Amino acid sequence: MNKYSILALLVLLAVVSADKCQVTLPRLLIGDKYTNATSDVTAIIAFDTADECKGVATLNFNKGDPSFDFRVIDPVLQAVDADLDHNGKEKERVKYKKYTQIIQLKADVQQSYTVQIQGNITDKTTVFATNYTFILPKLPSNNTKYAQNQIKFLFFGDQDLTANGTSVLNYLNSNTQNNKFDAMIYLGDYAYEFYQNNGAKGDSYIEKFAPLSFSYPLAMAPGNHEDNLNFTLFDQKFFLPGYNKTLNKYNSFTIGMVHFVHINLHYFSITTNDEKDKMLKWLKNDLAIASNAGQRRNVPWIIAVGHKLNYCYDPYYANNTECIGYAQQFLPIDNLLSQYGVDLFLVAHQHYNQVMAPMARNQLQDYKLTNISSNEFNLQKGKGYITIVQGNGGCVTPAIPQSKSRVLDLASDLQKANLFIDPIHYGYGYINVINQTNVQYVSYDAINKKELVTFNIKSQHQQSGSSSTTFGSLITFSFVILSALLTAF
Ligand SMILES: *[C@@H]1O[C@H](CO)[C@@H](O)[C@H](O)[C@H]1NC(C)=O
Ligand SMILES: *[C@@H]1O[C@H](CO)[C@@H](O)[C@H](O)[C@H]1NC(C)=O
Ligand SMILES: *[C@@H]1O[C@H](CO)[C@@H](O)[C@H](O)[C@H]1NC(C)=O
Ligand SMILES: *[C@@H]1O[C@H](CO)[C@@H](O)[C@H](O)[C@H]1NC(C)=O
Ligand SMILES: *[C@@H]1O[C@H](CO)[C@@H](O)[C@H](O)[C@H]1NC(C)=O
Ligand SMILES: *[C@@H]1O[C@H](CO)[C@@H](O)[C@H](O)[C@H]1NC(C)=O
Ligand SMILES: *[C@@H]1O[C@H](CO)[C@@H](O)[C@H](O)[C@H]1NC(C)=O
Ligand SMILES: *[C@@H]1O[C@H](CO)[C@@H](O)[C@H](O)[C@H]1NC(C)=O
Ligand SMILES: *[C@@H]1O[C@H](CO)[C@@H](O)[C@H](O)[C@H]1NC(C)=O
Ligand SMILES: *[C@@H]1O[C@H](CO)[C@@H](O)[C@H](O)[C@H]1NC(C)=O
C-alpha cells in the first residue's frame, strides 16, 4: 500500500467565534526563501477573510510525509482609505479593510499534498469546499545528474479579465492536467487597476488563480500598475514566503537548475537614492553568490524576472522615448546582470511577445542564431543576457496603439537585437530547463492553441568578470521579423 494514500486528517485550529471568516481567493505562493530543504519556509498558502478571524481558519491536510511542517502566522491587514489612481487616470476613492491569512509551509518537495481550507466549518456557503492538490517545485539537489533537476515553468504578465486575457486564463485553467508546469512566474500588471470597484476588480481576477496557483505554485511580481501607496496594497496581498516589505521588491529563489532573481525596476525608478543603493547592494550580493563557480555547478542557470525591462525596443510607437530611455535609466542594474553572467531576463510591460538577442551595457553581444524552421530557432549566446518579453497575457490596452505612428526610426543595437516580435497573439511563455547548457523557450498562442515560436537556447554561463568569448567573431547580421507588423497594417 502506498504510504501516501493513508489519509491523516489534521484539524489544526479550533474554530472560535467570528463572523465573515469565509475563505476567499486561496493562493499558493512561492518566492523569497524558496531555497533549499533547510529554509524555514518553502511556500505559503494565503487567503482573504473579511474579518480578522485570527485562529479561525481550519486547514485539513492530507499528510503524507513526516517532514511536512507548517505554521499559521498572524493575519496581515489590508486596509486602504485613499484616492487611488494610475498615473493620474482611473481615479477612484477606495475604502476597504480585509485580512490576508497566512500559513507558512515547510514541505518535502517531491510529493503531492492535498489541502482543504474552511473558513467557517459550519458555514456551508464557504467557497472553498474544494480540495486542492499541489506539489511544490523541485529544490536544487547536489547532484551531478542534471536530468534530475529539470524543471518547466510558466510565465506571463499584463493580463486582465477583458476578452483576450480571460480566454488565455480559461485555456490555462482548463489544461492543468495536460500542461504540467512546476511553477508559475507572474510578471506583473494584473487586472488593470486592481483597486477599482473597491478592490473587487483585482479580487475577481485573483479568484481565477485559485486552481492555477495550486497547480503551479505562483511567484508573483508586481508591475507598475501595482505601485499604489508604494506597493503597500500589493505587498499585503502577495505576502511572499519569508516576507519582508523591502524584499518583496526584490528577492530570489532557486528551483531545480535555476536561480531566479526578481527585481522590480519600476520600484527602482520611483524610489529614493538610498533605496536604489540598497537594491543594488542586494542584487550584487545575491548574484555574486549565485554565480560563484561552486554554486553554479549545481545551479547553472541564472534567470532574472520582473515586470519592467531595460532593453526596450518598441517598433509600434515610433518615438517611444520612455521605452528607449530604460536602457540608460536602468544601467546600474544592467551592469550587475551582465557582470555576473545572468542568462535570461524575463519581463513584460510591453504588451507584446519579443525575443531580444543578448545585450550587455547597451551593446549587442556575441550570439549565433540558426533558423531551423519558420518558427523554431537555435540561439547560442556568448556574453550578455537574452531578454524575453511576455507581455501578451491579454489586457485592456492592445499592443498596437491606434493613434500612434508605427514608423521604425531607431537604428541602434536595440533594433539589431530584436530577433522576434509579435503584437497580435495572446498567450503565455514557458521554459523547459533541459540540462546545464540547454533550455527551450516556447511562446504559446492560447487563443489559436498553437506554438507561436520556439527558441532552443544554449548558454555556456559566462563566469563572473570573464571577458573571454565562447564563439568567434561578433555576428553582425540582424533581422527583424516584420510579418507580424505587416499583417497588422
Ligand atoms: C459560522 O457560520 C454560521 C452561519 O453563518 C454562524 O452562525 C456562526 O456563528 C459562524 N461561526 C464562526 C465560528 O464563524
Ligand atoms: C539553504 O538556505 C539557507 C537559508 O536561506 C542557507 O542559510 C543555507 O546556506 C542554504 N544551504 C545550501 C546548501 O544552499
Ligand atoms: C475533501 O477532503 C476531505 C477529507 O478527505 C473529504 O472529507 C471531503 O469530502 C473532500 N471534499 C471534496 C469536495 O472532495
Ligand atoms: C556535493 O557533492 C560533492 C560531490 O559528491 C561534494 O564534494 C560536496 O561537498 C557536496 N556539496 C554539498 C553542499 O553537499
Ligand atoms: C524582514 O522580516 C523579518 C520578519 O518580520 C524581520 O525579522 C527582519 O528584520 C526583516 N528584515 C528587514 C531587512 O527588514
Ligand atoms: C517605499 O517602501 C520602502 C520599503 O518597502 C521604503 O523603504 C521606502 O521609504 C518607501 N518609499 C516611500 C516614498 O514611502
Ligand atoms: C521622433 O522624434 C525626433 C526628435 O524629437 C523627431 O526628429 C522625429 O521626427 C520623430 N520621428 C517620428 C517618426 O515621429
Ligand atoms: C527560416 O527558414 C524557413 C525555411 O527555409 C523560411 O521559410 C523562413 O522564412 C526563415 N525565417 C527567417 C526568419 O529567416
Ligand atoms: C483581442 O484580440 C483580438 C485578436 O487578436 C484583437 O483584434 C483585439 O484588438 C484584442 N483586444 C484587445 C483589447 O487587445
Ligand atoms: C543538453 O540538452 C541538449 C538538447 O536536448 C542536448 O543536445 C545535449 O546533448 C545535452 N547535453 C548534455 C551534457 O546532456
Distance between the termini: 63 Å
Tally the helices: 11
Share of helical residues: 10-25%
Content-based structural category: alpha+beta
Give every kind of bound small molecule, once each.
2-acetamido-2-deoxy-beta-D-glucopyranose
CATH superfamily: Metallo-dependent phosphatases
At CATH level 2, the architecture is 4-Layer Sandwich
Please provide the count of β strands: 23
Secondary structure elements and their pairing?
Blueprint: E1 24-29, E2 43-49, E3 58-62, E4 69-86, E5 89-106, E6 112-118, E7 131-135, E8 151-156, H1 163-174, E9 183-186, H2 200-207, H3 209-215, E10 218-220, H4 232-237, E11 250-255, E12 258-263, H5 265-270, H6 273-291, H7 293-298, E13 301-305, H8 321-329, H9 331-339, E14 344-347, E15 353-360, E16 363-364, E17 367-373, E18 376-381, E19 385-390, H10 413-417, E20 418-422, E21 427-433, E22 438-445, E23 450-459, H11 483-488
Parallel strand pairs: 8-9, 9-10, 12-13, 13-14, 14-19, 18-23
Antiparallel strand pairs: 1-2, 2-5, 3-6, 4-5, 6-7, 8-21, 11-12, 15-16, 15-19, 15-20, 17-18, 21-22, 22-23
Helix pairs in contact: 6-9
Bound molecules: 2-acetamido-2-deoxy-beta-D-glucopyranose (10 copies).
Question: How would you characterize this protein structure?
Answer:
Helices cover 19% and strands 33% of the residues. With 489 residues, it is of the alpha+beta class. The protein has a single domain (138-488), classed as Purple Acid Phosphatase, chain A, domain 2. The protein has an eight-stranded mixed β-sheet with strand order 10-9-8-21-22-23-18-17. A hairpin with a 2-residue loop joins strand 17 (367-373) and strand 18. The protein is globular, with a radius of gyration of 22 Å. 48% of the residues are buried. Bound molecules: 2-acetamido-2-deoxy-beta-D-glucopyranose (10 copies).
